[in-house]
Amino acid sequence: MTAPKKITVIGGTGYAGSAIAREAAKRGHSVTSVSRSAPAEPIPGVTYVTSGVEGAGASITEADVIVGAFSPRGANRGALAKVYADLTKQAADAGARLVLVGGFSCLRRTAGAPRMLEGESFPPEVPAEVVAEAMENLDVLNNLLADTTGVDWLFVSPGMEFSAWQPGEDLGRYRIGDEVALFDENGKSTISGIDYARAVLDEIETPTRHRAQIGVAY
Predict the structure, then answer these.
(1) Which residue, 68, 91, 202, is CA-closest to 137?
(2) How far from 48 is each of 11, 30, 38, 195, 198, CA to CA, in Å?
(3) pLDDT tens digits for 97-142?
(4) Residues 87, 28: contact at Cβ < 8 Å?
(5) pLDDT tens readout for residues 154-172
(6) What is the reported pTM?
(7) Which of 21, 58, 166, 192 is most exposed, with the fewest beta carbons within 10 Å of its own?
(8) Which of 206, 215, 88 lies closest to 147 in space, CA to CA?
């Protein structure tokens, strides 16, 4: 059995963050969620800190693992790279592992190909705020790839269909790839929130990659 860890989830009330917090608490870890607002339905076993990232304080310094599920939308738009740069330094100082919820378009179609965000255009119907969020995620990944702190980071990109508007089903399985996007036999790339959270917690409990990007999909 894996020894319980202290896990702090930044943005722990959002779609990905709450799924990760729920799965971590279910597995017996000590979980703290940091977000600007408290959830309407708190998850049993999760401690909630209502604060911006800058006020997370001891929740970060005492953590074994820091999970970044910060959403760069609304008032947070444009802040992702700075927030995660600060978290990277804090994780390095604390000796904690840093696990970030990444973006699908940061993956590659094939090995050695450009990342999709660099080599392809978004369909015209994709909202501008989604494109902006994808660009911020790529900035975060590039910063991690250039990191010199030595922090043990992991950038976890979900399938293309992954959101509160496309919650998916609890299938109890997933596949992990590296920088190359995963698609099923029908050409779809999707993952539910709970199966994504399982992949993240499995990697937290039994690490298989370090200072790397991975993709998670069915």
Answers:
(1) 68
(2) 11, 12, 7, 23, 21
(3) 999 999 999 999 999 999 999 988 888 888 888 888 999 999 999 9
(4) no
(5) 999 999 999 988 888 999 9
(6) 0.94
(7) 58
(8) 88
- Tally the residues of the chain: 218
- The amino acid present at 89, given as its one-letter code, is K
